[in-house]
Known about the structure:
Elements lengths: L2 E3 L15 H6 L1 E3 L7 H15 L6 H10 L1 H11 L3 H7 L6 H12 L3 H22 L2 H12 L8 H15 L8 E5 L25 E7 L17 E6 L2 E4 L5 H14 L9 H11 L9 H10 L2
Parallel strand pairs: 3-4
Antiparallel strand pairs: 1-2, 4-5, 5-6
Helix pairs in contact: 2-3, 6-10, 7-9, 7-10, 8-9
Amino acid sequence: xxxxxxxxxxxxxxxxxxxxxxxxxxxxxxxxxxxxxxxxxxxxxxxxxxxxxxxxxxxxxxxxxxxxxxxxxxxxxxxxxxxxxxxxxxxxxxxxxxxxxxxxxxxxxxxxxxxxxxxxxxxxxxxxxxxxxxxxxxxxxxxxxxxxxxxxxxxxxxxxxxxxxxxxxxxxxxxxxxxxxxxxxxxxxxxxxxxxxxxxxxxxxxxxxxxxxxxxxxxxxxxxxxxxxxxxxxxxxxxxxxxxxxxxxxxxxxxxxxxxxxxxxxxxxxxxxxxxxxxxxxxxxxxxxxxxxxxxxxxxxxxx
Length: 304
């Protein structure tokens, strides 16, 4: 099966060498199966859409149809760049955990879940040392985050949550529009309530990419660096819609968000570019070219 790197020759004043590695990788566009055009694949897509409307879709059939329609889906995503809501309507299976990971394997030829968590766990001890040694304002913020897991060093999920929350702070990214929390009583599945209803409510419709942590009313913590280690629910927001919810951990949500960004040909959140580049280039070893000075410095520190 051949592939084409669409748009990889675009050049601008800000980007004289063409698309960044992350965009080129996400541009993977396979040809239709030999002897087929869009028509029979569209019929399979409709069958897949109808199957996903059932209370309990046939998982084996869904996987078969997702494999079969991959080239049609990639053509639509790469060439048309449709809104996320349209993709949810036409390809609802693409927003199920199993299919997020399966699609990433089709696009990038990597096991995202396995590679992400193996890398995270292997780097965590050294990252903890690096974070704890940081001084100044950033160091104080990192210490505040890590203090919440000081008595939970054997809790893998808690430590993964803390490491991934510290990473953007260390890289001078701004996660305020990405790591969101909402009191349970204000949460309605699939909806964002306007800010004026409560100081605790985030206007989800304004969020391009984010992770929403729904917390019990009695555990509200106003501190923006609170980890909320016992959430009621965790969801993923893309283009103002909650596209996945009931995710088991913040680390899993970040992993799935990375997969969705790749699968849907989206851009990384601008304020978290260093963080997502670190996940891509250092944790997953995807892409080529020089790392930014910040990422190279952190990568070098990890190897010491």
